[in-house]
Amino acid sequence: MPENDKQSLSMVTCTAPVNIAVIKYWGKRDEDLILPINSSLSVTLHQDQLKTTTTVACSRNFQQDRIWLNGKEEDISNPRLQSCLQEIRRFSRKRRNTGDSTSDVSGVSHKVHICSVNNFPTAAGLASSASGYACLVYTLSQLFGVESEQLSAVARQGSGSACRSLYGGFVQWKLGEQLDGKDSLAEQVESESYWPELRVLTLVVSAEQKSVGSTSGMHASVETSQLLKYRADVVVPSRMEEMIRVIRERDFPAFGELTMKDSNQFHAICLDTYPPIFYLNNTSHRIISLVHRYNQYYGETRVAYTFDAGPNAVIYTLQDHLSEFVQVVRHFFPPEVTQAHHVMIITLNSELKRDINMEPTPKGIRYIISTKAGPGPCVVKDPNHHLLGADGLPKKSVISD
C-alpha cells in the first residue's frame, strides 16, 4: 500500500464508470442483500466523459470513519455504505488470517476517510449510485488487498447495478438462485473493444434530483405491479439470451429494437405501479418520437433510446450515423451547451427535417455528452490527483461552499 510517512497514511485513488442497462434491473427479491427479481445487461460508458473518482485513506490516527460526497460530508452510518465497509474489511481479515502474504492488510483495523466526486449530476437518473459504489468498493479493495472476484457481491450490496460497473464493455448481472446471493453476480459478456463502432449519446434533459428514488420506486413496483412479475418470469429470460446473441453478432438493428422495447416496458411498469411513477417528462417523450421518426425515414433502426429512472435519454448508434443524428438533435432540441466531442458538424438534409416534422424545442436538452463503451475501474497513479490531502481531509478544491 502507498505510504505517507508524515501522517502514517495509506491512500489510494481510483475511478469507476457509469453503466447504462439495455435490459433493465427493476425490483428486488431481497431488500437487504439487494438480490434482483430478474437478470439485467448493461453497457459500461467511457470514463473520459462519465466517472466517479474516489480516494480512500486509512490511518491509526483517524478517530472515526468519515465520508465526503461531492464536496459535502455525509452520514457514514448509511446501512448500505456500512455493509460495503464491513464486507471489505471481513475479506481483508480473512486473507490475513489464512496467511496470505501477497498484500499488506495491516491497516484493516484503522479508520478510513473516503472522498468521492462525480463529474456528472448525482441522482438525476445517470447511474450515479452504480459508479459511486463500484468506485468505493474497488478503491477499498486496492487499499486492503481484497481480490477482484469477491467485489461483485460487495458492490451489489451498496447499489445493485454497481456490480455491473466493476467491468468494462458489455456486462450481465445474473439473477442467481441461492438465498444468500452468492451466485447473483456480474460478469463481462464482451470487452469494450468488441464493438468499436458503437457510440453512445447522453441527452441531459434535467440534472435535478428525481422525485421518486430508485429504491422506493422498485419497492412500490414489486408490491403493486402485476406486469412486473410477468416481465421477470416470462419476458426477461428470453430477452437476456437474445441481447447477448445480438451483441456478439454486432447486429445493431436488433440491438436497438430490443433496447427500446425493454426501456418502454420498464416505464410501462412504472405506470402500472400504484400510485404510478413518472420518470419521463414531455421532452423525454419528444426524444422518443424523434428517434422513431428518424428511423422511419431511413426504413431501418439506426438509433435507439433507453431511459433509466429519470428523464435523461441515452442514445445508442453507430459511428457512421453519429454526426447526422447529433445534428438532428441540435436542430430539434437546440441545447444550451454541447459536449458532443469529436462529432463532425454537417448540414442536415432538408427532406429529413421535413419528414421528421417536429417543432423545435429550444433548451429542451441541457447538453449532450458523446461517448462510447469503456473499461472498468482503474487505479489513479498520480498522487497529485488524490482528493484527500496529507492530513486525511478533503483538499480545498473538493469542498463545496
From TrEMBL:
Keywords: ATP-binding, Cholesterol biosynthesis, Cholesterol metabolism, Lipid biosynthesis, Lipid metabolism, Lyase, Nucleotide-binding, Steroid biosynthesis, Steroid metabolism, Sterol biosynthesis, Sterol metabolism. The keyword Phosphoprotein does not apply. GO terms for biological process: cholesterol biosynthetic process; isopentenyl diphosphate biosynthetic process, mevalonate pathway. GO terms for cellular component: cytosol. Its EC number is 4.1.1.33. NCBIfam families: mevDPdecarb. This is Diphosphomevalonate decarboxylase.
